[in-house]
């Protein structure tokens, strides 16, 4: 069963259970995928579905941050619930220790020695963590490690 099929199956289940938060979130994801397929004029692969889910998760994280900054806790909570549902379809995220290990290997691989080498390191790290780590977090870790060298 493809990831898209799982999303559709889970939508039907959520509708039966009258779980409206899950129904609305899954409908939004499936609409995003439909738009992607219309744009590309072909069926979305699991990798493309995962990328779309990552974009949606990133939007939710940014919205949560903004709502909290402006004291809108009820809206932030709604976004958190959506984020939780979206993340349940994403691959297991790497821990900070696992990311740090991958970053250190990349630094050694490219011979990075200063923050100027950030781009070189990121170019090696990102394909290894694709879909399993937030790019902002990876960038922050690479920057901190390079500055401490």
Outline of the structure:
InterPro entries: Asn/Gln_tRNA_amidoTrase-B-like, GatB_Yqey_C_2, YqeY/Aim41, YqeY/Aim41_N. Keywords: Coiled coil. The protein has seven helices and no strands.
Characterise this structure:
There is one protein chain. The protein has about 150 residues and is an all-alpha fold. The protein has two domains: about 90 residues, Orthogonal Bundle (Hypothetical Protein Yqey, Chain: A, domain1), CATH 1.10.1510.10; about 55 residues, Arc Repressor Mutant, subunit A (Orthogonal Bundle), CATH 1.10.10.410. The protein is built from seven helices and no strands.
Q: Summarize model confidence as the mean pLDDT.
A: 93
The DSSP helix count reads 7
What CATH calls the topology of the largest domain is Hypothetical Protein Yqey, Chain: A, domain1
Number of domains: 2
Gross CATH architecture of the largest domain? Orthogonal Bundle
Number of strands: 0
What is the SS-derived class?
Answer: mainly alpha
Rounded radius of gyration (Å): 18 Å
Report the sheet with the most strands, covering strand number, pairing sense and barrel closure: none
So what's the CATH class of the largest domain?
Mainly Alpha
Which outline best applies? globular
Percent of sequence in beta strands: under 5%
Order of helices and strands: HHHHHHH
Poorly predicted segments: none
Q: Which bin fits the share of residues in helices?
A: over 70%
Protein name: GatB/Yqey domain protein
Organism: Thermotoga petrophila (strain ATCC BAA-489 / DSM 13996 / JCM 10882 / RKU-10) (Thermotoga naphthophila)
InterPro entries: Asn/Gln_tRNA_amidoTrase-B-like, GatB_Yqey_C_2, YqeY/Aim41, YqeY/Aim41_N
Keywords: Coiled coil
